[in-house]
Design goal:
By secondary structure, the chain is an alpha+beta fold. The protein is built from three helices and six strands, in the order E-E-H-H-E-E-H-E-E. Bound molecules: adenosine-5'-triphosphate and magnesium ion.
Length: 142
């Protein structure tokens, strides 16, 4: 539950699964299904697939709502590292996420707080070519 900015896990030279979609509400389901398929194919346990689905839903929703204009590209990537599987969501905006503390009465500002509770490490980094990546490392129990 440590957030790191301007860090990014090193992807393997091969074996990165990637889905690029246009920023629109339907893209969030596409990203979720893509990640769920990858985790299911990897024979991870059901709890981790649930975490993966929740995390990508929050990150892709943020990319759509806060990090792009309608039709901009959003890219979802998943890959293995020695520390566990990583989910990345890339969007075109240089604006960085601003995680907020969980409150009992807030109606928004919960997505990243939820992610923070569910994964051991997540972060974000601006990309050299523009835009940014928000990533999460998931604990592998399989
Ligand atoms: N991909 C992004 N691009 C730009 N800003 C972002 C991005 N993701 C998050 N943010 C900023 O970080 C804030 C916190 O994000 P978080 O997901 O916790 O809350 P929210 O999206 O505002 O509400 P909720 O997720 O509860 O519907 C957002 O309000 C937004 O300002
Ligand atoms: Mg959100």
């Amino acid at each position: 539950m440590i957030t790191r900015s301007e860090l990014r896990p090193t992807p393997p030279p091969t074996g990165v699964a990637e889905l690029e979609v246009k920023s629109e509400p339907e893209s969030i389901k596409a990203a979720r299904d893509f990640v769920a398929d990858w985790f299911n194919d990897g024979a991870f346990d059901d709890d981790l697939v649930y975490v993966a689905r929740t995390v990508v839903t929050e990150l892709a929703t943020n990319a759509h709502r806060h990090g792009s204009a309608e039709g901009d590209p959003i890219t979802t990537r998943v890959f293995h590292t020695d520390a566990g599987p990583v989910i990345e969501v890339l969007d075109a905006s240089a604006e960085l996420p601003v995680p907020k503390p969980l409150t009992l009465d807030g109606l928004t500002g919960r997505g990243l707080a939820l992610v923070d509770l569910m994964v051991p490490l997540w972060g974000y980094a601006r990309l050299p070519g523009g835009g940014k990546v928000v990533w999460a490392l998931l604990h592998a129990r399989a």
